[in-house]
Design a protein that fits this description.
This protein has about 300 residues and is an alpha+beta fold. The protein contains seven helices and 17 strands. It has two domains: about 5-160, no CATH class; about 180-295, no CATH class. Helix 1 runs antiparallel to helix 2 (about 70-80) and helix 3 crosses helix 4.
């Protein structure tokens, strides 16, 4: 995703508004709960209808309301004058659209707005916010489905850049396989579990590190540090990733992407796992290898 989009954020202006944009299609206005800030945005938009989605955050920063509107300024004015009880203490709003008026905007399609709204509700819940909004599923035609899939990735990027989220929604098939189920699968596959812990194990007599990874823009990030990194440098043992068919990758294979031995002197080494439709890639810096062959199950 980092290769796909860039990001620019302006400094906060006199009304407390922070404007930001991606190099894709999304634009955002981060504003305080004041009528003057809203009026400045409305003036910037030439008093035209601008559709999109918005996020209201309360003073704790962990309670949000997510909504959509054909005319965001009118909707936010209502939230200013007559706030709903469930988000009555909101003090900040983030408006997101494609920077185009209703006559030209893709967000003028209510199906797209409501689908994005529902996606953002799930995304903020995944990031442990208390979300006081419901949303409703939509039926999509092929064009709408394509548009929504494309813009969801860009919303992920923008919201991470704005530090509103730190993790992404796990795609179907990439959910973490929990410890007890993982143990059963390995035993059914004929592996001998000599030792079995939450993060380390001895399998078929060899040292194994169990890491599900953390979802980042580049893929599932796995960080090597301390003895984990030292074991990688020696090429002893393997990495077990309990996602999408379970990856069991020998450290000697991972060493292939770390071509500069001086990198082992760093405090940490970060690799990224990317699950594609038929192929799985492992990346370190600018080096990438195909690790599909190390998947235990289809």
């Amino acid at each position: 995703m980092e290769d796909k989009f860039g990001y620019h954020q302006d400094l906060k202006n006199g009304e407390g508004i922070i404007r930001a944009r991606t190099t894709g299609q999304l634009r955002s206005w981060d504003m305080p709960r004041t009528l003057r800030a809203l009026e400045e945005i409305k003036k910037e938009w030439g008093n035209l209808e601008y559709p999109g989605v918005y996020i209201l955050l309360d003073s704790s920063g962990k309670k949000v309301y997510i909504g959509e509107a054909k005319d965001i300024c009118i909707r936010l004015k209502t939230h200013l004058s007559s706030p709903e009880d469930k988000i009555k203490d909101w003090n900040r709003a983030v408006i997101i659209n494609d920077g185009r008026s209703a006559m030209q905007s893709d967000f003028n399609d209510s199906v797209i707005r409501k689908s994005v709204e529902l996606y953002l509700i799930s995304l903020f819940k995944a990031n442990r916010y208390t979300v006081v909004a419901q949303g409703e599923p939509q039926k999509h035609n092929p064009h709408q489905k394509s548009m929504i899939q494309a813009v969801e990735e860009e919303f992920d990027f923008l919201l991470m850049k704005k530090n509103l989220i730190t993790k992404l929604i796990e795609k179907p098939g990439q959910e973490e396989i929990l410890r007890d189920e993982l143990k059963k699968i390995l035993e059914r596959k004929g592996y001998e579990l000599n030792e079995w812990g939450a993060y380390e194990a001895v399998i078929n007599g060899g040292k194994v590190y169990i890491r599900p990874g953390s979802k980042k823009e580049k893929g599932w990030q796995i960080t090597f540090r301390d003895k984990f990194k030292n074991t990688l440098q020696r090429g002893e043992g393997a990495l077990l990733i309990p996602r999408d068919g379970i990856l069991f990758i020998p450290f000697r294979e991972i060493q292939k992407v770390i071509t500069d031995n001086s990198k082992y002197k760093q405090n940490t080494i970060d690799i990224y796992i990317n699950f594609k439709e038929e192929t799985i890639y492992l990346t370190y810096s600018t080096s990438t290898i195909d690790v599909t062959q190390f998947r235990l199950m289809r």
